[in-house]
Amino acid sequence: MSHKDNPRNVGSGILRTVLAVMVTPFLPGLILGALLLRTWGDFSFALMISGMIGYPALLLVGLPTHLLLLKLQRPQIWGYLIAGLVAGVAIWGCIVIWPLLDNADLLVLSFRDSAIPILLVSVAFSLLCAAAFWLMAVARFAKRT
Fold first, then answer.
1. Which of 8, 27, 92, 106 sits between 20 and 30 A of 98, alpha carbons compared?
2. How large is the angle between the packed helices 115-137 and 40-57, nearest 10 degrees?
3. Does the structure show a pLDDT above 70 at 21?
4. Does any domain span residue 73?
């Protein structure tokens, strides 16, 4: 029986993927909450916003990419980072570009000057989440003898 056919390895891969799906969308909120926010209310708000943005990105970009890369038997980190880049730009588009197209005057004024920083932050957090997802769901840490 090969390593891939072992039922124990298949179950472990599914468990690792479920863990990655549960944890990675909250990483930006955990980081912001730990580094920048002072109260429990701010921390929980950061986690909530992180989940509200992270889960749609994961479900629309990350998980389909993960399943495709596994099916193609090419689960290298580069594929996940490219998906993270796409998700980060998509998040930026939803936050900045969509209100511009919708003529939401208040949002246009508030996001016009901060479009580039929002892009950089959303791409950075998306890349971080993609790398963390890969580490949790795909990477094999075999002991070296």
1. 27
2. 80
3. yes
4. yes
